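Input chain follows. Return structure tokens only.
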Amino acid sequence: MTTSDFDALKVLVVDDDSYQRLVIGKMLSAIGVPTVHFAESAQRALVMMGTTDIRVDALICDLDMPEMDGMEFLRRVAEQGFECSVIILSGKDANILRSVELMAKEYRLAVLGSLEKPATIGTLRTLLQQHWARPKARERGTQPALSVDAIRAGLEAGQFEPFFQPKVSLQTGQVCGAEALARWRHPERGILPPVAFIGPIEESGQMDGLTWMMLDRSAAWCRRWCDDGLDIPVSVNLSLSSLHDTRLSNRLLDIVNAHRIKPANLLLEVTETTAMTDVARCLETFSRLRMKGFGLSIDDFGTGFSSLQQLSRIPFTELKIDQSFVADASAQPSLRAVIESSVQLAKNLGLKTVGEGVETRDDWLCLKQAGCEIAQGYFIAKPMEGGLLLPWVKEWQSKSSV
């Protein structure tokens, strides 16, 4: 991105320190931002943003301000529906900045990152460059509404299928598994991601039908890969309704027997929240599944309130470290500490560890250094159709040097 790429950007700097406003203003001018507004308080900033003659694309906000601090200001920005990117400006501890960033994201603000005082022009430029990608990312997550009847018809027509995201050993680079992720091959709209249908499916009680379709089709692809020399386990998410089915293990055995694969070829993923519902019945189901030889993975580890309790009482074989810890861990000591602790805990319990949401080489190296065994994410590959996995594996393993 060149200086001229900032030509249309309008920035509001909110800081009660006049010297800091001057410094940030000069930096913005130096990188080519033509329109910069200044507010000496959060209250003044809200008034300015509410006027029709001032448009704000990006907001640079201090945290420690009198009367209304930066946290309350960001909350009000979100509540009033102002659409702008946010850069947090502060000289506070890095852990505080991280917490405020997470807070702002929970308020659905487009957070570009933090600018630690004393700010540098290079960091400011890098953060503002992300502004242009943010709206596109939000647009990709927005899907046209689909009716429950349309989804039911799609299920009945068998239009849902698994796409597979590879799981790779961090030590050897070898492909050691794949996760099945639901996609809807819509006859008019093409391939639709889960955001377009999972909510309505859960609300209308159709999740069980999708789960069994995913299990059966994933097992079928596993058989085809085995026939072609690729013997890897496939991870499939279990729904809450399927966990309540006392026939679950027998139905799963019917599937693996029909497709001539081993129970160990299916790794069943459950979130800790799902496992906390109707605990006695879930524990019965989990124990029976493990006795039959199926693998069990705790997904999104660390995002709920009962992770340690779940690990102590459920016979898991794998622990998946949530992507919220993996992203930025290379630059955040607190996140690295969470990953390292999770990996050590898993080792003590005899569980494999998977880091999900690996999007950069830094993410990969951070997990590897922490002793994590397996990585999964866009840095390796996006989810793909079953027929594309084997060619991808051959290409990956012929040139893998990560």
